Structure formats: C-alpha cells, structure tokens
Amino acid sequence: MERGKMAEAESLETAAEHERILREIESTDTACIGPTLRSVYDSEEHGRFMEKLETRIRNHDREIEKMCNFHYQGFVDSITELLKVRGEAQKLKNQVTDTNRKLQHEGKELVIAMEELKQCRLQQRNISATVDKLMLCLPVLEMYSKLRDQMKTKRHYPALKTLEHLEHTYLPQVSHYRFCKVMVDNIPKLREEIKDVSMSDLKDFLESIRKHSDKIGETAMKQVPGAQDLVDFSPVYRCLHIYSVLGARETFENYYRKQRRKQARLVLQPPSNMHETLDGYRKYFNQIVGFFVVEDHILHTTQGLVNRAYIDELWEMALSKTIAALRTHSSYCSDPNLVLDLKNLIVLFADTLQVYGFPVNQLFDMLLEIRDQYSETLLKKWAGIFRNILDSDNYSPIPVTSEDMYKKVVGQFPFQDIEMEKQAFPKKFPFSEFVPKVYNQIKEFIYACLKFSEDLHLSSTEVDDMIRKSTNLLLTRTLSNSLQNVIKRKNIGLTELVQIIINTTHLEKSCKYLEEFITNITNVLPETVHTTKLYGTTTFKDARHAAEEEIYTNLNQKIDQFLQLADYDWMTGDLGNKASDYLVDLIAFLRSTFAVFTHLPGKVAQTACMSACKHLATSLMHLLLEAEVRQLTLGALQQFNLDVRECEQFARSGPVPGFQEDTLQLAFIDLRQLLDLFIQWDWSTYLADYGQPSCKYLRVNPVTALTLLEKMKDTSRKNNVFAQFRKNERDKQKLIDTVAKQLRGLISSHHS
C-alpha cells in the first residue's frame, strides 16, 4: 500500500514536472529549448510527456481553431507567413549543415597549429633569455649611437656629457663583453676629437664675426637694440664649456683673447683712402662698433672668458688708434659738408659705444679739434663764394620797379630809408647786389658753424663763443681779403671803388643785426661776460679805407695818364688864348668823376677832390721844372699859365660840395704865385718881402724860382742871336743875371 502511495506521489511529481516543462516550452525562446528537451529525455517518462504534449497540442489546436474561426482571415495570413518561414528555415538548415562541415575541417588545422604553438613556446623561452642579455647591452649601444649622432650634428657639449655617462654609468655594467673593451679604448680619442672640432667651430666663429663686424656695427649705430642677436654665440659657449669640462679653460681663454687682439688691430687699421668718402669712415666705425658689441656681449654672457680689464685695455688701444687715424685722414678733407657729415658720424659712433658703457670723452675732445679744421674748410669755401659774388657784381645800385622787388631786397638785407620809401617807382637802392648777397652768406656761414656744434654737449655760451670766433675769422680774414683783392685789381674802375665804399658803409651798419642774429640762435646775450664781439665794423672800415686810398691812387694815375698827353712847345713865341686840349679833357674827366661821388660820405669825396687837385698841381710843377725842359720862353709860360687858370676855375666851381670858399684853390697856390712872379716880373717885391709872413710870393721857393729863371736865361742867350745888339734885351739879360745872383744869395743865406 505504501508502495502504491509512493507510486502515486511520483506520478503526481512527474506530472507537475511535465507541466512545468510544457509551460517553459511555451514561454521560452526556441533558440534555448534544447536544454529543456534534454531534461525530458534524460528521464524515463518521455512517453507520458509525449502524451501530455499531444494533449496540450490538441488543446491549443482547439483554441487555434476557435481563434481561426473567429479570426479566419488572420489565420490565412498566418499560414501564408508560415509557408515563407518554412523556406527560410530550410535555408537556415542548409547553412547549419555547411557550417558544421567547415568546423570539422578547420578543427584539423587547429590541431596542427597547436603543435606549432608548442614549438614556438620553446623558441620564445630561448629568445627571452637572449633578450635579457641584450637588454644589458642595448643602453650602451644606444648611448654610443647617441654620441655619434651628437658629434655628427656638431652638438659637441651634449656629446661630451653623453661620453661621461657612457664611461662612468653604462660601460661598467657590460665590461665583460669584447665590444665594450673597444669602446673604452676609443673614449680618449673621442674626447680629443670633440676638443678639436669645437676649436675648429670657434675659429670659424672668429672668422665669421671678423667678416660681419661692419654689419653688426651698422645695426648698432642705427640705435637698434639687440645688434648682438645677429651673431650666433653658441660656438663660443660650447667651446668654453667643453674646454672647461676638459680642464683646459685657461688655454681656451688665452687663445680667444690673443685672436681677438689680432682682429682688433686689423679692425683699427683704416684703409688708405678712407678720407675720400663718408662711406669709408662709416665702414671703419661700423667695424669698430661691431667688434666691441661682440666683446661686450661676451663679457656679460660668459663668466671670465673676458674681463673688464681686458676690455678696457682693448678700448684704450682702440681710442688712441682711432683718434690718430681720424686726425690724419680728416686733415686731407677740404669739403666742409664731408667734415660735417664726419662729425655727425663720430657723434653717432661715440653715442653708440657710450650706450655699451665705453668712455668716449676723448672722442668729443677730438671733435673740438675737427671743429677748427671744419672752420678752416668753411672759410676756404666761403672765400670762393665771396670771390664769385664780388666778381659777378655789376657794382651798380640795385634798381627796383615794384613794391614786391623792393620788399624782396629789404627782406634779404636790413635797410631802412624813409626818404627812399617815399620815392616813386622805379627807384634804386644805394648799394649793389653784393651787399644782400654777402650779408646772407655771412648768415649761412653762421648756420654752418651752428650745425657743427649740435650734439657736442656744449653749453650755449661755448656755442656762442665758437660761432662768434669763426664769424670774426670770416670777416677779418676771408671777407676782408676778398674785398682787398677786388680793390687792388688792376682793372678796377673809380665807379666800382665808389660803389665798394658805399656797399661797405651799409654792411658796416648791418653788423648790429648780425649780432642780434647770433644772439637769437644761441640765446646768449651780447652783454654776457666774456662774450666775443664781432669785428665786422673794423673789417668794413678797413675795406672802405683801402677803397678810398685806391680811389686817390686811381685818380692820380688817371691824371698822370692825361699829363702824358701834354705836348708843350717850350720854345714858342706865340701867346695862346685858351687852355691846352689835354687839360680841358682832364678837367672834364674830373668833373664827371666827382659827379659820381654823390652817394659817398662827404669827407671821402672832399678828400678825393683835394688829393686830385694837389696831385695835379704837383705834377704840373714837376712838368714845368723837370730837367728835360732846358729852355722855355715867356710865350710857353703864358700858355702854361692859361692851363693853371683852367685848373683854378675848376677848383672855384665847387666840384664837390662842402669846401669853404677858396679852400680847393689853395692846391694850386704854389703854381699861381710862381707864375705871377715870372709873368709880372715882380722880382723887386719878391726880393724885398722874402721871408716875411705877409709876403705876396710866400709860396715861391728861391730854388724853384732860380731853376725856372735859369731856363729863361738860357733861352735869351742861345736863341736870340741878335739880342746883344738890342739894348733892351741886353738890359733884360743883365736883370736876369742880377736876379739870379740875388736868388743864389737868398739860397745860401737860407741854408747857412
């Protein structure tokens, strides 16, 4: 009975399990149904399960039928879809079959591969052992390769560091290998190679900066920061580090300094034709600046390669040689513009080096020397300018026909004349063109002097003093010589001389304006202590006096030229009734000449007129008394008297205003009294009153009277053949002898 209960219980348990399986089949994805079905076949109740499955299928069929009846059309559609699924299921079956076949085939290859893998594992163990050995050697080889690459790319300092690591860190770990022994033996050679190559790079660097010093200097002279950036200093740094590491720093320092000293001497040697162009000086300065820019950078970027004492020594040498070269070459320069450009270049040179900390006071002191030379070249240039102005001048008053022309002249030269301003156009300035031209050229000279003083760090007083001294040289030497040369020219005419006197008078008046001009540009008042005064007034006075003297001389020469035309017949017996032609022409010349003297200062015109009259009187007296005239007649003396009267008439006519009454006639008083004495034969009065202040013939010298009397006595004796037969002639001859005897007595008593 218990067995029956147990069977029943088992039947119920099996039924429940089958029910679970059926629910699982209904609810589980078909792809995972395999395990479920396996559990059915693992038990022995699969027959009963099939019965339950059939029962369940029939139940579902009945439900399907019901549903189909209710949803017939849906059923039809489902059948159609099911047919399609059947086709796809067949394809899937075929694919599964094919996959299974391939899997079986590949499985054989996998077995073969597994065998091969076994062999590889064996090789791997061998390789691993080999790699472990190589890993010890590989860093050494890599380091050595790195060393070679560094040397190949000229990175010598890193190469030296690599060599140190290789020698002290890596090689000891693999010292039992033969290749390591080779490396160890090669290390000293590599060190020497690095040393030699770095020195070669240094030599290339030194040669490069020698060639490019002018470019470096040019950049620095443009006040451009970072001129040293044009240079790659790495060869110096590398070589310095390498020699320091190798314990040979001192050797390197000595070599570097020695080579740079040699280069300094080359740089400081100027080319022989440096003075010919500004570019020659510029290149010279650029090279020097470039040299010291490099050395200054080395001083500040290396520790001890060069020191301040070394730099100072080089700079002292450079200063002395540069200044000597500039003194020599600048002395050849005759162009003031080039000297001025040179001065500006020297200032730029000095200022540039001063920025780098080099003392440049000696250069500015030398510029003061060049200033004197500049002044000399300016004076030479302005000598040519003044010469051209004076040579091209027409020595005629400047005519103006309009207000614009008038203002133009007044704008060029400080001139004020109220009377002239009132005159209608056209009118004339009293001076000629050279007055405003000379005045403006003096101002241009002052400007040129001022240009040189710029940037020399001079005080206003020093600039003012420099300009005034240079201007004084221009006035007292250059302009004065130019005026004197014109005045002393052989072909200078009286008109030109008169105009020069007028011109210099106006230039003399303009000197105060030149003083003001200098004051305005220097801001130093003339009243300041030690201020140099302009000597223009003296210059123009001297020139005017020279012109006046030249007028007097020229007038006398003209008078002499007319007197050379005199052709007296000293033996004539005819009594003339008019003055000689040559004298009439001479008087006409004097009248026209003195008419030109209108604008001259009154004293000059009067002096010239008096000088001319005195010279004429003296020349006529000399003509009358000269030894070549051995005999003369009373008729000739009468003609001579007519000529003197013509001269006296000219003197009375007042050719130049300003003379008092008969002052000008006094020039001919000696001639007049001498001629009156002989023509009136008033010897008794002369002899009786001689020596008294009120004597009528006070100006007649007994020696002169005797000389002329002797000429007349000779005439009476030699030419009047029958004179001895005429009583009156004999009496006259006796009278002449008596007068001559008395004159000799006067002369001897006067001398005693």
Automatic annotation (TrEMBL):
Alphabetical GO biological process terms: Golgi to plasma membrane transport; intracellular protein transport; vesicle tethering involved in exocytosis
Alphabetized UniProt keyword annotations: Coiled coil, Exocytosis, Transport
The keyword Oxidoreductase is annotated on this UniProt entry: no
Pfam families from the UniProt entry: EXOC6_Sec15_N, Sec15_C
Cellular component, GO, one term: plasma membrane
UniProt signal peptide: none
Domain Exocyst complex subunit EXOC6/Sec15 C-terminal: 362-711
Alphabetized InterPro entries for the sequence: EXOC6/Sec15, EXOC6/Sec15_C, EXOC6/Sec15_C_dom1, EXOC6_Sec15_N, EXOC6PINT-1/Sec15/Tip20_C_dom2
Gene3D superfamilies recorded: Dsl1p vesicle tethering complex, Tip20p subunit, domain D, Exocyst complex subunit Sec15 C-terminal domain, N-terminal subdomain
Residues annotated as domain Exocyst complex component EXOC6/Sec15 N-terminal: 52-221
Stretches of the chain forming a coiled coil according to its record: 82-109
Function per UniProt: Component of the exocyst complex involved in the docking of exocytic vesicles with fusion sites on the plasma membrane.
Family membership: Belongs to the SEC15 family.
Protein name according to UniProt: Exocyst complex component
Native source species: Trichechus manatus latirostris
